[in-house]
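Changelog note: in this version the structure field was regenerated for every chain. One regenerated record is shown below for reference.
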Amino acid sequence: MDRPSPTAISDRAAWLLEARELLRLSVPLAATQIAQMVILATDTAMLGHFSKDALAAAALGNTIFFMAWLMGCGLPMAVSPVIAHIQGEYADSAQARDHRDVRAAVRMGLWSVALSMPFFAVLLFFTRDLLLLFGEDPKLAADAALYMSSLGWCLPFALAFQVLRSFSTALSLAVPPLIVLGLAVLFNALGDYALIFGHFGLAPMGLFGAGLASASSNFFTFVAMLGFSLLAPKLRDYRILHRLLRPDWKTLAELLRLGLPMGVTMLFEVAMFNGATLAMGAFGTASIAAHQIAITIPSLTFMVPLGIGLAATVRVGMAAGAGDAKAARRAGFTAIAMAMTFMCATALLLLLYPRAIASLWLPDTADNAQVLALAVTFLHVAAAFQLMDGVQVTAAMSLRGLKDARWPMWLAGASYWLAGAPMCVFLGFGLGLKGLGIWLGLAFGLLVASILLSARFFILSRRHN
């Protein structure tokens, strides 16, 4: 009877060890992403109970705020692969140099937030004018501007939190950001309850109060994460605020080279899905309602492969920084396999129980029959693209670990806007498939992205060997 060779046993052990390390890091990262969604869901639920007009105005205001956040978060997120490379490069070298370079990456990440703020301040200040430019109702546009007047000031703190989160995550400490956001969920819920409705002796502030509660919770996350960074034993030795005003132009240039394409890549995907939501308006209220229900569910399941992908950025980056191309390749493909496994399970649930899942968002009554029927159809398509969504995000994040950001940006842009969006138009309007055609187009865009990005990682990781 043939026995496996020692090399085969060693390789198997290496893959199992990589899977264990990825799992250890990705579970709190995925939970952190889910916590962020819970904060948004709390705001929506509270405002929905206050008034439908307030909910609609906040939705419009959040669209502007979220776009600003997306444009600004590329550089803060680039801090993670930069530090991961430093950790790998100096794993066996002098600690002082490692600490100095990590500190420079965090410092320049915070600088990037400060330098971008004048642009974003102007953007948020003109919320009302931007919404009117897009043809929104003047009353809703004015209410959205009121909401933004209390929410907008927190953007620098929200982005600075991302810098500190990247710092902690790159050092394989994913739990502190999770603890901070877990506390922020409670802080935000309490703030919404007190400020929107006027509890605890406060006057009801409605939309302005909702913005103030969200802004305060973002400020809280920054302060709490800064406290962790300065006091936690594994983080405090880096003294991230030391020489805070000292520039490091080389590091800032590296963050720009990586961060700007990363931000644009996220904008490409979000813009395609937002465009699909706008296109649904042409097919009636039932289609819009069904689309909102159906898109919420894959948005939730997506948080798990996103967490795995964030962990892959760190693991691939550390291996690449250490010059271990085989380990970097192993980390990336382990992450892709883990994401595929999870998304296959969620796809099966969406195929077997679509109506029961949709009914969690909308009661299964005769009045809602049309909406639920459409939601079931859309969820069947969502089941089909679960696997593609998991592959594309983990492949993209693994490429970030190799400090490859520009090509993934172009590949994502081509996938979503040269493949996905035209297919949405062709199937939805050209062939008359309406909402189903839009969803099939989205699935096609994700399919192309998953193929191109995973192929890019396959080719690039082989070059590093």
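Spot check on this record: Confidence is low (pLDDT under 50) at residues 5-9. The two ends are 34 Å apart (CA to CA).
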